[in-house]
Amino acid sequence: MILFAHGARAASWAAPFERLRDLVAAREPGVDVSLAFLELMSPRLPERAAELLAQGVTDLTVVPVFLGQGGHVLRDLPEMIDQLRADHPQLAIRVAEAAGENAAVLQAIADYCVGSLLEPR
Fold first, then answer.
1. What are the entry keywords (predicted)?
2. Which of the chain's ends, N or C, has fewer CB atoms near its CB within 10 Å?
3. Chain segment 94-110, per-residue pLDDT in tens
């Protein structure tokens, strides 16, 4: 599984995604869970997918850790996936919906927002 995020110039930006990776890996110990980025950080998605394939992985799930279906999810990611499929036809690739499009994720964020009303100021 690759958690796919945008990337940023500041290395600290990746910290929440690294924690998310660790949480997912702890829940699925038999699954290789890693991060890959669209730009500005390494590894990029094509690099990470090639590394996994070299390790013998044949089934890959890509989870876009984006809140919405902007241009990166609607245009850039499909182009990258199409290229990966062309370059590595032996790799079965599944792409999940963007995290922010999932009802359970939105509910968890809403719970967090409502909970912030109860926090002391």
1. Lyase, Metal-binding
2. C
3. 999 999 899 999 999 99
